[in-house]
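quick q for whoever's on today - can somebody do inverse folding on this one?? i tried earlier but teh output was garbage lol. tokens:
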């Protein structure tokens, strides 16, 4: 697109109800937020355990800054790798039961790093059609043959694996899909990876901290294989920011030497690792919060089942209210805002055309009566059964 076409292109976004805008918060992250002077009950954040403003994490970050300063100064491979970062990487690896781990500035960077460093032109990558955009971008940038299979379609995936001449193969999936809240069949995927000698790369952005007693998809499904490469983001349930990749020591050493998004960027602030260490301790003991989340999930499923909307069988904090029309979805989100509820409207291209939705993200800080109030508001708007 040429620069002179941008005004027309932006107008087209407006007319098709697809222009995005940022909401500027006046408060810390939480279920009760303020935007532009108005108070809202928020169902928009992926802060599933309510740790983003946890006093122990705040204190750990402050203490870390006092001990280690603010900036890292350079990349990890020059002089920007600190003892506390080494400690955090070891703790992350131990937490998910893998030999070694590497910290990254974001899950997006981690996905780019892993897939682009393990694959090249003569290789092949197989990805679920509902994967996150960062996984798709990583597959494209790897220059490997990129094959997408229908969502959770193991038969199609096996056919593709059986008919590729590529020597190096990688299967890439989200463990929990961010728009529907459903899960990948990880045990069956690992069986295929082992049968066809492929890597299995797991993006556990929405499972870490919630599933498997907080230890994520690996703990939930007891996956043990050197073919597994695991990524968890730290800015969702962990309440901090960044991500880590965990795998065999050989894989981590390879990434340290070959992963361009890791090598050619300034390291994270070392103080952040102090907050990561504190977060892991809290997640390990957060069984009551996870139990409360399950109660909220069950309540949401119950209310959706009695509504006009489809009820995807999600056992995760991601609970979509699928409306269909972009305009109707935006109108419903706007109505909820007038009643004090902040629920994001998700539209194409994030989801397929005709499946625009409100996306509820539940937090352990939510209370059942708050969920009831939200669904009562939807019913009063004429959008659910009485």
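ok took a stab at it. sequence:
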């Amino acid at each position: 697109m040429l620069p002179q076409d941008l005004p027309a292109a932006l107008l087209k976004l407006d007319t098709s109800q697809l222009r995005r805008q940022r909401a500027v918060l006046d408060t810390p992250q939480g279920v009760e937020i303020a935007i532009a002077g108005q108070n809202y009950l928020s169902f928009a954040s992926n802060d599933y355990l309510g740790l983003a403003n946890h006093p122990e994490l705040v204190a750990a970050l402050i203490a870390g800054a006092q001990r280690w300063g603010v900036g890292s100064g350079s990349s990890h491979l020059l002089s920007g790798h600190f003892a506390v970062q080494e400690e955090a990487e070891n703790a992350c690896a131990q937490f998910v039961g893998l030999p070694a781990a590497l910290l990254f500035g974001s899950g997006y960077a981690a996905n780019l790093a892993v897939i682009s460093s393990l694959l090249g032109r003569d290789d092949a990558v197989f990805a679920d059609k509902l994967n996150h955009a960062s996984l798709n971008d990583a597959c494209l940038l790897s220059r490997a043959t990129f094959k997408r299979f229908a969502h959770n379609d193991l038969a199609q995936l096996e056919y593709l694996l059986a008919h590729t001449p590529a020597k190096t193969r990688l299967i890439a999936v989200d463990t929990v899909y961010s728009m529907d809240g459903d899960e990948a069949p990880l045990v069956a995927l690992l069986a295929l990876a082992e049968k066809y000698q492929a890597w299995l790369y797991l993006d556990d952005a929405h499972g870490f901290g919630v599933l498997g007693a907080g230890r994520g998809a690996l703990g939930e499904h007891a996956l043990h294989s050197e073919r597994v490469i695991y990524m968890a983001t730290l800015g969702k349930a962990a309440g901090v920011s960044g991500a880590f990749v965990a795998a065999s020591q050989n894989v981590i050493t390879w990434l340290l030497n070959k992963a361009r998004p890791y090598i050619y960027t300034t390291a994270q602030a070392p103080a952040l690792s102090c907050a990561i260490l504190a977060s892991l301790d809290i997640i390990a003991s957060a069984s009551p919060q996870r139990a409360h989340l399950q109660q909220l999930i069950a309540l949401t499923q119950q209310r959706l089942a009695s509504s006009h909307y489809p009820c995807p069988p999600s056992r995760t904090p991601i609970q979509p209210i699928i409306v269909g029309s972009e305009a109707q979805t935006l109108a419903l989100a706007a109505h909820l805002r007038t009643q004090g509820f902040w629920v994001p409207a998700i539209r194409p291209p994030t989801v397929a055309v005709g499946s625009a939705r409100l996306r509820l993200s539940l937090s352990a800080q939510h209370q059942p009566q708050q969920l009831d109030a939200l669904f009562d508001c939807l019913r009063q708007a004429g959008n659910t059964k009485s």
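fwiw The chain has two domains: 17-49+287-380, 55-284. also The mean pLDDT is 94. so keep that in mind when u check it
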